[in-house]
Design brief:
The complex is a heterodimer of chains A (272) and B (352).
Chain A (H helix, E strand, L loop, with lengths): L2 H34 L16 H8 L1 H34 L5 H9 L6 H19 L7 H25 L4 H8 L4 H29 L3 H6 L7 H11 L4 H23 L7
Chain B lengths: L3 E10 L2 E11 L4 E5 L6 H9 L6 E6 L2 E2 L10 E4 L11 H11 L4 H14 L15 H13 L5 E5 L7 H18 L2 E6 L2 H7 L2 E6 L2 E6 L1 H6 L4 H6 L4 E8 L2 E3 L5 E3 L6 E7 L5 E3 L7 E10 L3 E9 L2 E8 L12 E5 L4 E4 L9
Classes of the chains: A mainly alpha (272), B alpha+beta (352).
Organism (chain B): Alloyangia mangrovi
Pfam families (chain B): ABC_tran (PF00005), TOBE_2 (PF08402)
Function (chain B): Part of the ABC transporter complex PotABCD involved in spermidine/putrescine import. Responsible for energy coupling to the transport system.
């Protein structure tokens, strides 16, 4: 076999493997999307016909809409707070060597490793104890939920901001200062624009992981004020009609649009 | 535009002296070059002038004003970085405008000044490009325009040519020098390349181990090197090591020469290759040597001559019509005018 044809074979195998993985990842999405257009209530094969009725059912379902709003609010607030913590933390980790440097780095990534159910339970116990000790209404409060979700956002934002800081040439900051820019101006005009893709990508992934979180939220939500994943789970306990598929497709669409729009402004491929 | 004075400038990191008691004065409009091997403290000195390194002791004055404790952004120096450090998310024009914006110059005044600065480096037509769309030489010129546009008191250049290829380096160094002279701006450049230093400077500063070893013109350094270190670092030198005693210089290999230097004991004699006279016949003051290596470079020819088992010198002869071009293994006779001798004990001891 010549070197050239061996290389062709290598490339072909690689492409085939990539295609296979891609299929494996998209099969659930394909089936959910297909199911959401079924006409019949009980999912069975072959479909009796197609319709958009489950979409209108999903949109008309007030519990879904309320839960969607709650999830969006929690996700956005958690992302903002998470960024406010992660940006200074990532800058400190990137620029200074201090006692406990590695420990802090690991601590900030921890929520990614600890199972959501453990995290949720731990937060639950913590909130109970704090409420007993202080008398403040923390249990099942909206802000209690938001601060729980901040933990989901931090690892993503820290990780991705650190990645973009690693590729940032600090002589650019010196150049700006030499040209007359103080520290804040230097950060705003030179550092920020360079690490923006990392910040945006971190915020996006953080938001998505908050938005889709089920296990941790189960411990933290108040009755009546649930997030979308919990609302879906509750609905599934009684019925299995394709409304769930429809609401899932809507969710996927929103996230996909967010990704595409963001990618137009900052090339996510540069950081992820 | 202003002069620059460094007084007793010292930077210590723990026990390590990055610079030690650096004393320098740069006159208004002068081009001073700091020359030395890596780690000699020249870059630290430049960074202290720019304000990125706080001196442990000493003071820096620009235009008579003490700036020692001022942050970089209040010093009005224009620094050209080794890697150019152009802002990648800004166009060439935005890069050049940055320094003017920071000084609160009115918008309508910025555009023409940016254009002028770019014309100065012949890049007026590329104002809307991004740095990544330009060659290294062009980026270098943008960096220069960016550092000059706000009329800094002092232009600082940190190894500005080391990322360019050899041909470009020759062009750009003449350009920088011509520009500096035309604008009459005070400039300090750091380099480890002596050829670069010699072609660009009004005056040179040779540094090693954080200390200034000699300050002077090209001629001063070349003709009257203060120490053995300078003799070896600026220009080429062959060194003969031996001992001076009773008016004679003797090497372990048995070479003996008359010597009237006021040095006693172990000594080193520095010889410039192009000052050597090579002839086929013995002549006054000549010593015989065997040709060990011939490096034919066209206009010039290097001869490695073995004077004794321990003594090897390089003589450079020019390739003129009728000049002697010996072959490998030939014996020739070589002599030299008064050479500088240095005490062997300390590479920084004064020579005679």
């Amino acid at each position: 076999m010549t070197a050239l044809s061996r290389r062709h074979l290598g490339r072909w195998t690689l492409n085939a493997a990539a295609m296979l993985s891609f299929l494996y990842l998209s099969i659930p999405l394909i089936f959910v999307t297909w199911l959401s257009f079924y006409r019949q209530e009980i999912p069975s094969y072959p479909p009796e016909g197609y319709s958009l009725r489950w979409y209108s059912a999903a949109i008309a379902n007030e519990r879904f809409i309320d839960a969607f709003a709650t999830s969006a609010k929690v996700g956005i607030l958690a992302t903002i707070i998470g960024l406010a913590v992660a940006l200074p933390a990532a800058l400190a980790l990137n620029r200074y060597r201090f006692f406990g440097h590695a420990a802090l780095g690991n601590l900030l990534l921890m929520p990614l490793i600890v199972p959501g159910i453990v995290l949720g339970f731990a937060l639950y116990v913590f909130q109970v104890e704090t409420e007993i000790a202080t008398g403040l209404p923390i249990m099942g409060s909206f802000w209690g939920l938001v601060f729980g979700h901040v933990l989901l956002v931090i690892p993503w934002t820290v990780r991705l901001i650190l990645a973009s800081l690693a590729g940032f040439d600090r002589t650019l900051e010196e150049a700006a200062m030499n040209l007359g820019a103080g520290r804040m101006t230097t950060f705003r005009r030179v550092t920020m624009p360079s690490i923006l893709p990392g910040i945006v990508a971190g915020a996006l992934f953080g938001f998505v992981s908050s938005f889709g979180n089920l296990e941790m939220s189960l411990f933290l939500v108040a009755p009546g004020e649930t997030t979308l994943p919990i609302a879906i789970l509750q609905y599934l306990q009684w019925r299995i009609d394709p409304t769930i598929a429809a609401i899932s497709v809507l969710q996927i669409l929103i996230i996909a649009v967010a990704l595409l729009v963001t990618d137009r402004f900052v090339k996510l491929s540069r950081v992820v | 535009m202003a002069g620059l004075q460094l007084h007793g400038l010292t930077k210590r990191y723990g026990d390590f002296h990055a610079t030690q008691n650096v004393e320098l004065e740069v006159k208004e409009g002068e081009f001073l070059v700091l020359l030395g091997p890596s780690g000699c403290g020249k870059t630290t000195t430049l960074r202290m002038i720019a304000g990125f390194v706080d001196p442990t002791e000493g003071s820096i004055r620009i235009g008579g004003k003490d700036v020692t404790t001022l942050p970089p952004w209040k010093r009005n120096t224009g620094l050209v970085f080794q890697n150019y450090a152009l802002f990648p998310h800004m166009t060439v024009a935005q890069n050049v405008a940055f320094g003017l914006e920071m000084r609160g110059i009115a918008k309508r005044e910025i555009a023409p000044r940016v254009q002028d600065a770019l014309e100065l480096v012949q890049l007026g037509h590329l104002a809307d490009r991004y740095p990544r769309q330009m060659s290294g030489g062009q980026q270098q010129r943008v960096a220069l325009a960016r550092a000059l546009v706000f009329r800094p008191d002092v232009l600082l250049l940190d190894e500005p040519l080391s990322n360019l290829d050899a041909k470009l380096r020759h062009e750009v160094r003449i350009e920088i020098r011509a520009l500096q002279q035309r604008l009459g701006i005070t400039a300090v450049m750091v380099t480890h390349d002596q050829e670069e230093a010699l072609t660009m400077a009004d005056r040179l500063v040779v540094m090693s181990d954080g200390q200034v070893r000699q300050v002077g013109s090209q001629r001063d350094l070349y003709e009257r090197p203060a120490s053995r270190f300078v003799a070896g670092f600026v220009g080429r030198s062959s060194f003969l090591e031996g001992e001076i005693r009773d008016g004679r210089f003797t090497t372990p290999g048995g070479l003996t020469l008359p010597c009237d230097k006021p040095i006693r004991g172990p000594a080193v004699i520095a010889l410039r290759p192009e000052r050597m006279t090579v002839a086929a016949q013995p002549h006054p003051g000549s010593v015989p040597g065997e040709v060990e290596f011939v490096s034919y470079m066209g206009g010039l020819i290097d001869l490695h001559l073995r004077l004794s088992p321990t003594d090897l010198v390089v003589a450079q002869v020019s390739n003129r019509e009728g000049s002697l071009i010996p072959e490998l293994g030939d014996t020739v006779h070589v002599s030299w005018p008064d050479a500088t001798a240095f005490p062997a004990s300390d590479p920084h001891a004064r020579g005679h």
